[in-house]
Amino acid sequence: MPKRTRAGALTALAGAALAVGTALAAPAAAAPKPPGFLTAADLPAQPGTSWTAGRVIAGIPEEDRQDICVGVALGSGQDTWFREFRTDLDTTARQISAELPSVRVAKGRFAKLDEDIVSCADRIEMEDPAMQAAFRDHGTLPVGNGAHVYALHTVTSWGATDIRLLSVGREGRTVTVVDWGRMGGFADAPVKAFKKTTVTAVHKLH
Fold this sequence. Notes:
Helix content: 25-40%
Largest sheet: 8 strands, antiparallel
Structural class: alpha+beta
Shape: globular
């Protein structure tokens, strides 16, 4: 190989090696970091038992995708995380949080969730004649960019009765839903404690 050609080839190889080394050294794109989540200690106290918190997991649980109250508004699950909580009794809870691309999109997500929760009882009865549903609005909370708390009581034709507390809150581009449930009626719902839980959930979104 002529001297000049050999030198050019060596220069090209050196450049290629440098490019490969640079590519290998470049860090991979970091996965989105989830917002702060509630802990077991943040949930309403349950007499005779205690809460256990699961891991924070990316995505949306399948049962929530199909949930008539929040499923549609939760979206595709991109940049969304959830954490499940349980007790030794029949009480369970879940928090789902989504980091949206902009404040405008987050406002829209918050409004859609709010709208769907408000209309949830009527839609439950329309879809299932064997189910009766009652709804209560427990008002807004002055935390973050806003939060709203609701209660939903359902009774089946065979006598099963369940109470559910739902709240939706927003801080900037992040929207969170807290969902608490157990067997019982409105009198069994710890509304005051759940409001405190919702305030904590929004504060932890920072």
